[in-house]
# Entry
Amino acid sequence: MNLAYLAILAMILEYAFFGYMVGVVRGRYKLAAPAISGHADFERYYRVQMNTLEQLIMVIPCTFIFAATWNPLWAALLGFGFVLTRIHYAWGYYRSAAGRHWGFVWGSVFTVLLGLGAGIGVVKGLIWG
# Structure
């Protein structure tokens, strides 16, 4: 389970870093809080942070459930895969809106696999106890 916990912590740290980057570019483009629009580059950094938050609401519980009910190693590997694809997503999106595509697609694959694994683990527990 510790590897799965580590994957979840990596997700949270990555999200915190994305939030930090929003603060950096907010200062770079002199966009005072609470504004979230006004400069296209800032808006891309902000969307990376917000989209990651939107994904984490599914990914973190699914990683934990998958690890607890099915297979902690696979949950961890898929969780780390999610973290790596979010880096790819962010890097691409920071450069251009179109650059986010493949990072988002592959991140979604990991999200779906974690959800399926969590669902299988729960059903397995219900049927076979």
